[in-house]
Amino acid sequence: MDLASAKMIGAGLACIAIGGAGIGIGDLWGKYLDGSLRNPGAASSQFTNLLLGFALVEATGLYALVIALIILFT
Amino acid sequence: MQMHPMEQFRVTPLVPLHIAGYDVSFTNQSLVMCAIVAAVSLFMALAVKKDRLVPTRSQSIAELSYEFVGNMIESTSGKAGYRFFPFVFAIFMFVLLSNFFGLIPGVFTVTSQIAVNFALAILVVLTVVVTGFMVHGIGFLKLFVPNAPWYLLWLLIPIEIISFLTRPISLSVRLFANMLAGHTMLNVFGGFVIALAGLGGVASALSIAPMFMIVAVMALEFLVAFLQAYVFAMLTCIYLNEALHLHDHH
Fold it and tell me: Are B74 and B241 in contact (CB under 8 A)?
């Protein structure tokens, strides 16, 4: 296998990690909805925490993307 | 003409300048950074110049951003954190405006450069270290000793130290990756529009679909631009809180 095709496969494999971010974001919003339907009064006070968690989880998926890009463009 | 998706992140010198072997050219990036600092400073100075009791719209924006950062500091580190207000406010406004300026088509995105983000992040972590040692003296090192049984400490202390040392990396790469991914995605969808329109016939009419996608992604990018500035400032506050209060919660 030559280097170019190995790079393509490697970049594709690196993107598997994005699935983890998908699980994380789904879990996060699902738990938030779950909690806010049980206790709607407390929902708005936790919205900023939700967004903070969302940004942190989303970033882990993007780390994988950065690795994929590094593999492709170096 | 189709551009490479990464072409938008190229730093090009506008005024080439070399001092003692170092490239210190005034680049398109420097230009946007100067514009951001000028925009924030001018807006903040002019919005509160009259100091009206009933605020105008621009004064409201200035007051809102001020209170927003104030609440952020108070909710994480309490009253003691207020002496870092100028620091956190400057970082928040700079990152926010960098992200928003980058969303204007054709304007360079400053925060898509890891060098800028890493400089900001290392500034934050150095401030935390200096503050920690100034407030607690050598006792600041207790930050690395969690409340755990002694037989776990030999494992936990190295983990704490490593997690502290990777903070500047995670802080900067998070912002960098978000900006890079968003703008690359917009560019790729833009490429779809051009490629489909060039095919002619039915395919040209279909090029409207990725066009709508760009609008949707753009809306998401506005959310991400704000969120990442918020997260950057919020984590700065959390780190500063650790330096001020170590482990004890107030």
Answer: no
